[in-house]
């Protein structure tokens, strides 16, 4: 089983590629190597293969990175399934995870995050949770997004550690995490991980 994220950058034409691509590639590099594990294509689209239980956290991580570069945002579809054909380039690989991710991406309308596991009941529950979470996530300010990105990248750090690393006060870190609904978003991510562990 693998997780496949298919995504594109919203409003990418409003910025030069060098204003957002380095942010995205730095995040993608934390999950694997290009082009075997991830690839950018069509200028503002990407695909990445991750462990299935880490797929939602990776999507939230990418979202936090892109929300730091207003007015940009990202649309991401997660597919969890098999990989029947591995290739040197992820965009040439095949399997149910790739099909589910692609179909889920094509079905994204106003939503910016979607999941397809191929289990109708679980897909419904997870997508309902995502649509509710998006009410907060889609409104992260650059400041909030930056703090959440740091918290995701350094799970071992407490708020004080994050504050020291970012040169901010602990109270401003606490406020940013609260405004971004970080605890609730991470509880959703934990629920997702539990469900994937049972598949």
TrEMBL record:
Pfam families: SatD (PF16264). It comes from the Bacteria. This is SatD family (SatD).
């Amino acid at each position: 089983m693998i997780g496949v994220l298919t995504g594109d950058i919203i409003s990418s034409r409003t910025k030069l590629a060098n204003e957002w691509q380095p942010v995205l590639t730095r995040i993608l590099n934390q999950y694997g190597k290009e082009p075997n594990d991830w690839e950018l294509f069509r200028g503002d689209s990407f695909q990445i293969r991750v462990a299935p239980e880490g797929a939602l956290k990776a999507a939230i991580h990418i979202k936090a990175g892109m929300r730091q570069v207003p007015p940009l945002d990202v649309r991401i579809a997660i597919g969890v399934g098999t990989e029947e054909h591995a290739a040197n380039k992820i965009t040439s690989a095949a399997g149910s995870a790739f099909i589910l991710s692609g179909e889920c991406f094509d079905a994204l309308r106003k939503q910016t995050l979607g999941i397809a596991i191929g289990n109708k009941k679980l897909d419904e529950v997870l997508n309902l949770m995502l649509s509710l979470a998006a009410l907060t996530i889609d409104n992260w300010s650059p400041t909030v997004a930056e703090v959440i990105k740091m918290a995701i990248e350094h799970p071992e750090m407490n708020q004080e550690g994050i504050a020291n690393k970012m040169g901010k006060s602990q109270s401003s870190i606490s406020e940013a995490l609260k405004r971004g609904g970080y605890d609730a978003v991470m509880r959703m991510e934990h629920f997702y991980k539990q469900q994937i562990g049972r598949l």
